[in-house]
Amino acid sequence: MAHSPTTRRRKKANRAPFLLLLGSLLILLAGLGYPILWQIITSFQHFGLEQQFGAPPTFAGLENYARIFTDDRLWTVVGRSLAFCFVNAFATVFIGLMVALIMRAVHGGVRIVIQIALLLAWAMPMVAAVTVFRWLFDYRTGIVNWLLTSLGLSGFDNYAWLSHALTFYFVASLIIIWMSVPFVALSLYAGLTQISTDVIEAAEIDGASRTQQLRYILLPMVRPVLSIVLLLQLIWDLRVFAQIRLLQDAGAPVSDTNLLGNFIYELGMGSHDFAGASAVSLFVLGLTILISWPYVRSLLKEDDQ
Amino acid sequence: MSTSTVAPPARPVRRRLHMGTFAFDVLGIVVALTWAFPVYWMVLSALTPNARLRQVPPSFLPTNATLINFQRAITDPGFLPALKMSLMITLLTVAVVLAFAFLAALAISRFRFRGRKSFVLAILIIQMLPAEGLFIAQYKMLSTLGEDVPALGLNSVLGVTILYSAAIIPFTIWMLRGFVAGVPLELEEAAMVDGLSRTQAFLRITFPLLAPGLVASGVYAFLQEWNEFTVALVALPAGSAHTLPLWLREFLNASANRGLDWAQVMAASTIIAVPVVIFFLLVQNKMTSGLVSGAVKG
Amino acid sequence: MKYKKIAALVAAASMLGLSACSSDNATDDASGSTGKGDGNITLWLAGSDTPQELRDYLVTTFEKDNPGSTLTIEEQAWGDLVTKLTTALPDEKNTPDVVEIGNTQAPTFTTVGAFRDLSPIYEELGGKDLLQSFVEVGSVDGKQYALPYYFGSRYVFYRADIWDKAGIDVPTTLAEFTDAAKKLTTADQSGFAMGGQDWRNGISWVFANGGELATVDGTEWTSTLSNPKTIEGLQMWQDLVMNASNLPTTERDVAYWDFINDGTNGAAPEASAMMAPGWARWSIGDMTKNDDGEEVRDGMVDDSKFDIFALPGVDGGVAPVFAGGSNIAISAKSQDPELAENLLKIIFSEEYQTMLGENGLGPANSKHVDSLGNDKFATTMIEAAAASKLTPAAPGWAAIEGAFVYEELFQKIADGGDVQALATEYDAKLTPMLNGN
Asked: Does domain B78-241 have CATH number 1.10.3720.10?
């Protein structure tokens, strides 16, 4: 006998998720399929500027990887990038959460003002943003030095923030955090508003203080969004490139301030070592998977519930 | 225990006005000022004649204000074509990405099927790949495609849209998945118990609650692609096909006869930011209204 | 099912959107053809050095001489030029036909066969009259692939009023210059504003002392920083930077003119001398209003306050400074090479070369150098350019610039490092890089 109506419905239901995924899969294959394949293959070949201009690439096996891994510069940059990434990702999410909570706690009018300010900051083209920060911290004409010396801290007279690696990273972090917080704050705020007010009201009636509400209700309920923004900040901050590059252009010790993104770019577009750049890119991919693995795993487990 | 068993009244929660709220208000204003300051500085610089920029001591107010930088930027012949190009590419990308990512997020969150875990993992891992090494291959790809299908090749809206969409779909799926996961299935099921069909329950209960998530993801996608530079640089080599970030880049050329005109760069940057702000203002109303009405439907 | 319906709706909507856009593409593509063998060629100019007047001349003249063909000029930012050339030049469907390229970048591309061999038309375009140092940098194995387009040069801009007050005359030797700069240096005012990473100005001291950055034997390049004359030059520069400049040693691409202009409200300038390419003139001077009512600098009208001189050589005369300027080449993959060559003939014609000079760009053909004029700016520029030198024409030079190796080296020197030791260290680093390894 033909399939019963229930089996037919179940079969239709089984096809539904795949249909839903189809569009995304097609886009991904179209836009990223070939480039990723190319990158993997190139990392195993000799590929420099000659190959780009027509000379056939030859097989190099693991040579590129060996060359990269025995290069001291790589490991210094890796260390720096990891430190920079962790500090900034956690700082951004923390500050973003604070801002989102503030947005919850203020009057509607103030909330709109904050949203507008965050949006403006977010909308600002990156080149302009980095330039403004460069000007603010300029050793001669910068407001920061002017303010600090006016307050009596004469050590900051003509202090060149960008010429010492540590203060360079301080300025870079300010920029990254400033640029990333709007997104984090707005997403967390959106997540917070999804929490049904019934639960909050019930808790208030029960006499829960603001902090208790925060710890036991709000935070757990926005955990999915919180996890995601943290993970994404980690991923993104590990690969940061353009802002560092623009700051370096203002005058900074380049090899002392390079992060992984810059390293890859210099290998590729600077030295035309495309094979090396591909190898390092795949290495960074591996590294990112490594540092986020425990996190990803818990996310997937959470999924199962 | 005084847990209410009665349906809550249909009104938004009134914040009790007390000192706490005012303190937060002040804090909120400080936050707003901090984040808006660099933007203010950009606009201030755009209003200053280039020769007077970066003086010591700095001036915080627009003395010597001039509109000449804006004038030059807007009347630049490359501006309108770049604006058109950016709008087409970005809006198309956002539409495509939101649509497909939303469906995919639903698939991942609401269904159990074979390959689900792998897809989720793949989506995550794709985002971890640094983009700097990919654009040579992306150029080759578009160039080859363009030989057979010009509408998909270099200097085309579709070609770049595909690249942009692929770049941002993984992230959007992740974001939306989080929001979908944050809306408990119980709400839908409760509504179905009340007699609504699955579709109605979805559209009337879940969807409005997802609206802020959709809007946040849409705004993020818009901003990312509106300001995107490297892929555009490589995929849109013809001057007639430039997007706004590429147009801005032209102002960063010093020449043999003059130094860099930073004031003009700032004016051009301000102009580029305007459509984004308009977009958000348009969308913000939907967001807040969807919020209020969606959160308390019984 | 509901999800399917939604999926269908969305798909339909996107299809509509996509088809609406593809009709736009048809018109976009038709106007942007490059190098397709269809008689329309593209010229890529770098930065905004070539004024609009000259670009219009090229288009009009080319289209008149080659009826039925069009010339499209596209401007590329200097910072992105190498990236765009790397992706576009090998692609015969989309390659620009003629490109402007920095003289320091030319060797990287000529050695991988990116450009067409121009030796057959070399004599016709000017032959020996063309700036030979630029020709050399664009040649491989005696064949020319990239020819000079225009040259610039750099010289010293100084505050004549401050120098006069201190009773110091324009120096005639490099040592005198160093002394003058040191004498004028105070805590608030540099005698000579120079950033520590600014090797483009710094190597002038190496050249002035007869030193070389690198030498070539056949095709093998060797970095010669340890050459005693080079060391002398570096040490001289070190002395100057440490004792006459208050700028941080990490400054690289500095707007030096900010330093010799007066501060706000007539405050004293932060430096009494600096070195820059000729076009810096237009950012120096007193504030004035131009025809648009805009506030600009007056371009050094008051010569009792602002003046110039060419950097003096070690034993008098003029020091060899680093020559600015670009080369021009035809893409090897161009589908219209004859038309591209026709364009080059127009560029190297007397009319165009003269126009370059009239606009402050040193013409490639030295026969037309007097079109630069004979005011002090022109004569100083020509003087400095005649003695100028270029960076080594090594295949790996662009990579060295891309990795900022020279910036690092110079910064360490400016910080007071041991020049001898640094030279040896960097020779070891640079030699493989020069050869493209």
From this structure: yes
Neighbours of C230 (CB within 10 A): 25
Q: Strand ranges (DSSP E) for chain A?
A: 45-46, 58-59
Give the pLDDT confidence of A253-303 residue by residue, as tens digits. 888 889 998 888 888 887 888 898 899 999 999 998 888 888 778 767 766
| Bridge partner residues of C45 (DSSP) | C75
Q: How far apart are CA C88 and CA C331, in angstroms?
A: 10
What span, in angstroms and rounded, lies between the C-alpha atoms of B179 and A221?
A: 11
C182 burial class (0-12, 13-18, 19+ CB within 10 angstroms)? middle
Domains for chain C: give ranges and CATH numbers: 40-152+324-382 (3.40.190.10), 154-322+394-434 (3.40.190.10)
Nearest residue on chain C to A160, alpha-carbon basis: C248
DSSP C280: G
Name the β-bridge partners of C271: C190
**pLDDT band with cut points at 50, 70 and 90 for residue C22:** very low
Q: Which residue has 């600077």 as its token pair? A: A270
Q: What is the pTM of this model?
A: 0.80
CA angle C325, C428, A62 (to 5 degrees): 100
- How many Å apart are CA A107 and CA B284, to the nearest integer? 17
Provide the pairing of β-strand A45-46 with A58-59: antiparallel
Strand C146-152, strand C362-363: pairing: antiparallel
How far B192 CA sits from the closest chain A CA (Å)? 18
Residues making up chain C, counted from first to last = 437
Could you tell me if A178 lies within 8 Å of chain B, comparing CB atoms?
Answer: yes
With CB atoms and an 8 Å threshold, state whether C283 touches B146: no
B7 pLDDT above the threshold of 50: no
Q: How many CB atoms lie within 10 A of CB B201?
A: 21
Instruction: Please indicate whether, in this complex, the C-beta atoms of C287 and B51 are within 8 angstroms of each other.
Output: yes
The sign one gets for the Cα dihedral C71, C72, C73, C79 is negative
Domain map of chain B by residue range?
A: 78-241
Domains of chain A: 83-304 (1.10.3720.10)
Length of chain A: 305
C252 CA: distance to closest CA in chain A (Å):
5
Give B158→chain C minimum CA distance, Å. 7
Q: A183 and B220 in contact by Cβ < 8 A?
A: yes
Say if CB B125 and CB A289 are below 8 A apart: yes
Strands C220-223 and C146-152, sheet pairing:
unpaired
